[in-house]
Amino acid sequence: MPAFEFLQAYWSHSEIATNAVILLNLLGALVLGLLVGYERSYHGRAAGMRTYGLVCMASAALTVIGGYPGHWFGGHVSQYLVNSDPTRVIQGIVTGIGFLGAGVIMREGFNISGLTTAASIWASSVIGVMVGVGFYMGAMGLAALCACSMIFLTRVEAWLPSRHAIAITMRFKAGYKPQEPALRALALQRGYEIAGGSLMIGSEGGMQEWRFVAIALSKRSGAPMAVLSAELAEFEGIHSFQLTHARN
C-alpha cells in the first residue's frame, strides 16, 4: 500500500464520521459531568465542575473508542492486532496514570487541592490513547474541550450561585466549656451554617479545640473572614483561632 493511501485511511469518510460520533459523546459526557460537579461546587466541595467534567468526559472517551475497534489504526486492524491486544495496554496506561494523578492531590486540614490537576493528567493520558489508536480528530476535540474547561470554567463557577466555605479552628481557654447549639446559632447570625459531619473536638491541657467547616447560606451571605477574625479576637472564651478558605 503506498504511503499516501496508508495515511489517507486515517482521514477517510468512515473515520471522520466515527470521530464525529465520538465528539458528540464527549460533549454529552462533559455537560452531564458539569451538572453533577456544579452540585458539589455549590456546596463548597473540593471536587467541582472542572474535576467532574474532565473525569466524565475522559471516561466516556475510553468507553466509546472501545466500541469501534474496526476503525482503530486507520482501519488496518487485521494487520496490527494479530499478536497484540491494545485494550490491555490502555488498561495499564489508565491505571498507572491514576497513581501519578494521586500524587498531586494534597490535603491540609479541611482544604484539598490538586484534584483538577490530577483529573487533567488522567484526561491527558486518554488523549494520548486516542492518538495512539488513530482517532486524531476525537483526540484534538478532547484536548480542546479539556483546555476550555480548565480555562473558562473558573469564570463560569464564579458567576453561578455558590456557597463558599471557611475552615475554622478555635482553641478555648482552660476551663471554658463551649456549647454546640450556641456555636451554631452564632454561625447563623453571621450567614453561615456548620457543615454536617465536619465538627471535630479535641482537648489538651484542659483547653478544648474545636474544628469545623462553616458554609455560607448563599453566595452573598456570610461575613468576610476579616470581620469574623475581628469578632473572634474579642470573644472572651477563645485563647487562639485560625481561619482558612476550605474546599472540603
Summarize the structure.
The chain is an alpha+beta fold. It has helices at residues 3-8, 13-42, 49-65, 77-80, 86-102, 115-133, 136-159, 180-189, 225-234; strands spanning 106-108, 111-113, 165-172, 192-194, 200-204, 207-216, 238-246.
Primary descriptors:
single chain; 248 residues; alpha+beta; Alpha-Beta Plaits; 2 domains; 9 helices; 55% helix; elongated
Strand content: 15-25%
Structural class: alpha+beta
N- and C-termini, Cα separation: 57 Å
The H/E string reads: HHHHHEEHHEHEEEHE
State the helicity in percent bands: 55-70%
Number of spatially distinct domains: 2
Global mean pLDDT:
83
| Basic shape | elongated
Tell me the Rg in angstroms. Answer: 25 Å
What's the main sheet like? 5 strands, antiparallel
Number of helices: 9
Enumerate the spans where pLDDT stays under 50 for 5 or more consecutive residues: none
How many beta-strand runs? 7
Structure overview:
- The structure is a single chain.
- This protein folds into two domains: 3-159, no CATH class; 165-246, 2-Layer Sandwich (Alpha-Beta Plaits), CATH 3.30.70.
- 55% of the residues lie in helices and 17% in strands.
- The chain has nine helices and seven strands.
- It is of the alpha+beta class.
- It has helices spanning 3-8, 13-42, 49-65, 77-80, 86-102, 115-133, 136-159, 180-189, 225-234, and strands spanning 106-108, 111-113, 165-172, 192-194, 200-204, 207-216, 238-246.
